[in-house]
Design brief:
The chain contains eleven helices and nine strands. By secondary structure, it is α/β, with parallel strands linked by helices. It folds into two domains: 228 residues, Spore Coat Polysaccharide Biosynthesis Protein SpsA, Chain A (Alpha-Beta Complex); 70 residues. Strands 1, 2, 3, 4, 5, 6, 7, 8 and 9 form a nine-stranded mixed β-sheet that branches. A hairpin with a 5-residue loop joins β2 and β3. Its EC number is 2.4.-.-. Belongs to the glycosyltransferase 2 family. Keywords: Cell membrane, Glycosyltransferase, Lipopolysaccharide biosynthesis, Membrane, Transferase, Transmembrane, Transmembrane helix.
């Protein structure tokens, strides 16, 4: 075994046309052996750029970078599968002792991996998340919503590591590739990692203050949150069961009170208002419970149907479709 830790850097690319060159320039010095603050030896063995079929010309930039640098490896997906699926595709194609994942927008500094590696080895951790010491450059309202979402996930999924989740993560290579092999359709990457990781740690990092505007809108963020909840476990189903029992007890108590008042003649006229209130509340709880169950059933059905998490293909620009584009030009 070599005492030099090799790293595979995995970057899902969706709209990276304007920022990939800057990212590659930041990683280039790390392909040569260097020493971490803790005295460990490391180097970046490869940069895996996963093209997630975005709307810009990221594919052309990836081809140019791969031609220029032999350590840049492109991975092509058949269509847009999303950030986590693209990251898993890159993990499955990696070969380093460790896998570093980060965003394409240069929000994260790749050189922080040296500190993260020291933390991983000192804590004997399988996964190390970069923990920002400054506020992400997304606006105060979004940052507040993100913190609240992570805290609620800790309760709803019974996962104590949920507040640590981040796209800037260092994962032991064999763990990363194994998770990429078994993860099912719709699974949230960090949830899947938490299932098999023996120990998870964090490392303080500083986020860049000037980055490209986020491509995540309100709808995609809510979808992100929904997937974390549904793939994080079945605790929410148990909550629904408890709520159902509480409302059943409340309904029974209310029925006893109504019957007692009726026996003693203190209800001169049947209460239409109380009937409607009980009916509406009961119907609302039932529909809420059915909706949550339906969401879990939907996730299970998608997995049972065999829907692929991702599908890697050859470079479209080098195949029959690419020839058609060349003829038109």
């Amino acid at each position: 075994m070599s005492d030099v830790h090799t790293l595979s850097v995995v970057v899902p690319v969706y709209r990276g046309e304007t920022c990939l060159d800057q990212l590659v320039d930041a990683i280039a010095p790390m392909i040569h052996e260097l020493e971490t603050p803790g005295g460990r030896r490391m180097r970046v063995a490869e940069l895996v750029l996963v093209h997630d079929c975005g709307p810009d010309r990221s594919d052309e930039v990836i081809r140019a970078l791969a031609e220029k640098h032999d350590w840049v490896r492109p991975v092509w997906l058949s269509r847009n599968f999303g950030q986590h699926a693209a990251t898993l595709a890159g993990m499955s194609s990696s070969g380093g002792d460790w896998v570093l994942t980060l965003d394409e927008d240069s929000q994260h500094d790749p050189s922080d991996v040296a500190k993260m590696l020291d933390v991983a080895l000192s804590a004997q951790a399988d996964v190390v998340y970069g923990e920002p010491v400054n506020a992400p450059p997304h606006g105060s309202m979004r940052n507040l919503a993100s913190r609240m979402a992570k805290r609620s996930l800790r309760w709803m999924t019974a996962n104590s590591d949920a507040p640590r989740f981040s796209s800037f993560r260092l994962v032991l290579g064999e763990i990363a590739r194994s998770v990429a092999a078994y993860a099912g359709s719709g699974v949230y990457l960090d949830v899947a990692l938490s299932w098999v990781s023996r120990r998870v740690a964090t490392c303080p990092v500083t986020l860049a203050t000037e980055v490209r505007p986020s491509g995540y809108g309100l709808r995609s963020l809510l979808s992100h949150y929904r997937r974390m909840v549904l793939t994080g476990g079945t605790r929410l189903l148990r909550v629904v069961s408890v709520v159902g029992v509480l409302f059943a007890m409340l309904g029974f108590s209310f029925a006893v009170v109504i019957i007692g008042l009726r026996i003693f003649g203190e209800i001169p006229v049947a209460g239409w208002t109380s009937v409607m209130v009980v009916a509406l509340i009961g119907l609302g709880i039932i529909l809420f419970a059915v909706g949550i169950v339906a969401e879990y059933v939907g996730v299970a059905v998608n997995m049972a149907l065999g829907k692929p998490l991702y599908l890697m293909v050859a470079d479209r620009g080098q195949g029959p479709l690419g020839r058609e584009v060349s003829d038109q030009q």
